[in-house]
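Hi everyone,

Forwarding the result from last night's run.
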Amino acid sequence: MEREKFSKLAATLGCLIAFATGGSINAAAQQLPLIVALPSVIVLPSTPTLTDQAVCAVSSEARDGESQSVISKGAIIAGGVSKLEQMRLAQQGVAAGSAVTSLESTAPLVLASTASSGLGLTSCLQVSAKVDLPKSFVQPRMPGDNDILGSQRIRISKTTLDAKWDRVRNEGVSRRTAQRFINRGTSDKLDLIDQVNSRINREIRFVEDARSNDQWETASRTIRRKTGDCEDIAIAKMQVLSALGIAKDKMTLTIARDLVRGRDHSVLIVELEGKRYLLDNESDQLLDGRIANDYRPIFSYSGTEKWIHGYTAG
């Protein structure tokens, strides 16, 4: 009986990973034990291809408000009206076969849901019944030095936001344009990152993208317009820092769930001398990019690499 229960649990986790990545159930199940950040509500097809695997049915009992943070950014970012943009990113058209390809850590990972996220699933799943994902089987541990926002990255081959990322990832600005955001003669890299973060926050006015198909803008366009939403501002910081000499592979655009305000958000993580810094349009202060800061990361992008996020057990 215990063996049967374990087999069903393993198959269920495999199904959830396949839903998140657009990959095959078998490929995903082979990577167990792990979990990823998933939307709390998924949409199942009327006649799904998974009908022969009954264990893929997830409990329909509503489970809201389970979000937990390690360290609150509210102690740093106090009060004020939220600038966070509710992106409601509709995941559409992820090609099959994008299974998890590697793990950043060999430690077992455990399942966690993304409460009330606006992120959907792939368009290949037709609307039928809504099913809530279960709560985390194990509470996330305290973050380590290799973590991003309290989670560990799981490399995948495809995500539903690839087209948006590919449109901007190779773009840039001139060094002359980038130097507008730092003091003359600044050479210390941490000081440079700090100045770019705070000055872009002040000079680029946050506006919510009202278009139904949210567009990620290049830094040059965002700087020229002096407006942008959260991902536009994060991308602008990334491309300005690149022009100032920060290596692109040391910067990561992360799409996350803001657990305080209940919205999706985008931030930039910059690695410098073994430390990770969070650049957020909600704060002029550089924050520790290893800890959750009341965020639950969903997708991350850097160059040609892309990741989903999981939590190590124990």
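Residues 2-69+97-156 form one domain.

Cheers,
N.
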